[in-house]
Amino acid sequence: MKNIAVIDYGMSNLHSVIKSFQKASNKKYKVCVATTNEDLKKASMIVLPGQGAAKSCMQKLTNSFPRLHEHILNKPFFGICLGFQILFEKSYEDNGVDCLSIIKGSVNDFSKQISQDLKVPHMGWNNVEQKKDHIIWSDIPRTSFFYFVHSYYASAESKEDISSTTTYDIDFTSSVIKDNIFACQFHPEKSSNYGLQLISNFITWSESLK
Amino acid sequence: MSVAKRIIPCLDVDKGRVVKGINFVDIVDAGDPVEIAKKYDKEGADEITFLDITASHEGRDNIVGVVEQVANEVFIPLTVGGGVKSFSDVRDLLSAGADKVTINTAAVANPDLINEVTDKIGRQCIVVAVDIKKSKEQYNVFTHGGRHKTQLDAVNWCLECQERGAGEILLTSMDKDGTKEGFDNEILNEISNKLSIPVIASGGAGSLQHLYDAISLGKADAVLAASIFHFGEYSISQAKDFLRDKGVFVR
After folding, report:
1. What residue in A sits closest to B162 (Cα-Cα)?
2. Chain A residues with CB within 8 Å of chain B CB
3. Measured between CB atoms, does B97 come within 8 Å of chain A?
4. Is B166 within 8 Å of B208 (Cβ atoms)?
5. CA-based nearest residue in chain A for residue B38
6. Please, which residues have CB within 8 angstroms of residue B62's CB and are 6 or more apart in sequence?
7. Which of A155, A177, B75, B235 could potentially form a cystine with A163 if both were Cys, beta carbons 3.0 to 4.6 Å apart?
8. Which residue out of A20, A51, A81, A119 would a mutagenesis test of the B interface target, given it has the greatest number of B Cβ atoms within 10 Å?
9. Hey, is the C-beta of B59 within 8 angstroms of any chain A C-beta?
10. How does pLDDT run across B6-24, given as a tens digit for each residue?
11. Nearest residue on chain A to B250, judged by CA atoms?
């Protein structure tokens, strides 16, 4: 049976991510926890969830998965939340952290940019505005609610990479799509039916990539 | 544009079963947490809160099982509280699939617990539940399910929780709880304006207008309610429609 590997680097709660991929894949795939490079090698798809701070995330990832960069470029990849942010060049969290530089752009602090009346973290349901016609958005209305929890936001430089945007006082990049990579700021595993639909679309898309 | 205002049904769980007369015609087992959570998800609940009211020590492990079962099948944020005492309690609930854990008495007894959870796991997962009651000169904080009065002032305590890293405040007015007269919008407004973290209003919802008032007058970021939804008086989608018609941004 083919594998979907969910990367575990000790910083996030994997339960819901694993269960949502199991549900969305209709048990066609085995959803496994990956803790080593070997696990990633065997996988058909890679999922990188994440919570917490960018700096310790980058440290733990580079220590445990020295060849992560290569795997991300070569296999269907789904990044969630921090797993989305670290694809950019730089995050301004913790006085600045160099990230994977797979997507051009940076990750910035909401509290420095938005009106004082708005609360940070940006937590709750907000509209995701699709910017691309793509199989990943099949059966999901062009503007739909997804669940967010984050204090830093990403800005992709190239319009080509932006799959959706969201507004929280300012417009930010809420998902990107590039080659074999899809990644989003919001949590599909907590976004009810449209979240599950998105995961299922990702699996369908991944299968077409091979 | 802001984030959508949240509607959160709250379920009381005793020894692993939902209690307090849930009354839905289309639910076969009204005590089954999974079935009820599914129903609320389908209706458009933005989050679900489980409050463990199990009195006996032996029954307490059940809540972890409940969270796990619900998280296996319901894919919206889940908050769990009731009797959470230590960091390991918090961790157990989160690894079972909860997204946020509510602490109340333990936060007052040991405020460093808030810092500990925030430092180790992140501020988004800790909700401090603050039960308050009005006295002459201030609002006092109560613990132990409202049985113990403390000398803490509600506003100062909420600010301290924020300072220590709480992600949200769940503010329950004991004066209003169970009355169905509406939330205490005055104190809600004061606290919400002073805090930079979200405030969830609880206690007193008896009508859809009350939910609207908590958001418009009380400046609540979310409203939590039990009986108006459980007894089928209103559905979550009716509440959403009502708020949307009044210009509130809801999912």
Report:
1. A120
2. 13, 15-16, 19-20, 23, 51-52, 118-127, 145, 147-149, 167-169, 189-192, 195-196
3. yes
4. no
5. A192
6. B13, B15, B16, B52, B54
7. A177
8. A119
9. no
10. 999 999 898 888 886 555 5
11. A125
Answer yes or no: A15 catalytic: no
Q: Which residues of B152-175 are buried (b: 16+ CB within 10 A; e: fewer)?
A: bbbbebbebbbebbbbbbbbbbbb
Domain A3-209 fold = Rossmann fold (3.40.50)
Out of 3.20.20.70, 3.40.1280.10, 1.10.10.10, 3.40.50.2000, the CATH code matching B6-245 is 3.20.20.70
Q: Which of A81, A93, A99, A184 is catalytic?
A: A81
* Chain A partners within 8 Å of B96 (Cβ): 15
pLDDT in tens, chain A (210 residues): 899 999 998 767 788 999 999 999 988 999 999 999 999 999 999 999 987 788 888 999 999 999 999 999 999 999 999 999 999 999 999 889 999 999 999 999 998 888 877 888 899 999 999 999 999 999 999 999 999 999 999 999 999 999 999 999 999 999 999 999 999 999 999 999 999 999 999 999 999 986
Q: Please tell me if residue B123 touches chain A, with a CB cutoff of 8 Å.
A: yes
End-to-end CA distance of chain A: 16
Cα–Cα distance measured from residue B1 to residue A174, given in angstroms and rounded to the nearest whole number: 15
Domain spans of chain A, in order of start: 3-209
For B143-157, what is each residue's pLDDT tens digit?
998 899 999 999 999
- Locate the chain A residue with the closest alpha carbon to B124: A149
Q: Which of A122, A127, A190 sits opposite B99 (nearest CB)?
A: A190
| Interface confidence (ipTM) of the complex | 0.92
A9-13: Cβ within 8 A, 24+ apart: A9/A57, A9/A60, A9/A61, A9/A64, A9/A65, A10/A60, A11/A50, A11/A51, A11/A52, A11/A56, A11/A57, A11/A60, A11/A82, A12/A49, A12/A50, A12/A51, A12/A52, A12/A81, A12/A82, A13/A51, A13/B94, A13/B95, A13/B97, A13/B99
Quickly tell me which residue has 């949502």 as its tokens: A20
Nearest to B246 by CA among B212, B219, B214, B205: B212
Measured between beta carbons, which residues in chain A are less than 8 angstroms from residue B73? 19, 23
